[in-house]
Amino acid sequence: MPATSPAQPYLEVIDSFAIRRTQQFFMIGRLHGAAEPGMFAHIQLNRGLDLTVRITAIEEVEFPSDSQSYTLLELRSDDPDSFALLLALKVGLETVQISVEGQD
What we know:
With 104 residues, this protein is mainly beta. It has a single domain, classed as Beta Barrel (Elongation Factor Tu (Ef-tu), domain 3), CATH 2.40.30. Strands 1-2-5-4-3-6 form a six-stranded antiparallel β-barrel. A hairpin with a 6-residue loop joins strand 4 and strand 5. It is globular and about 35 Å long.
């Protein structure tokens, strides 16, 4: 279980993927707590450094083969270097904190 207060939402990320043409980056997983577009996803680079990316959309996702629902977070980056970094991080099987604090 991640070290977080109950009031701070987080996503237990299962996997991530991107659509390069539209510069969209997605993370899918289980959302704990309440999150909304405009908040920031804090992707941990190491113990003391996070990459913050603004959440642009949140959708509930269902798979026919699974009775549980998942949450899809959409992140966008107009900066090609930031987008490349998101892809290179291969975000998956980790916890991503979500908060109102962050920087584009």
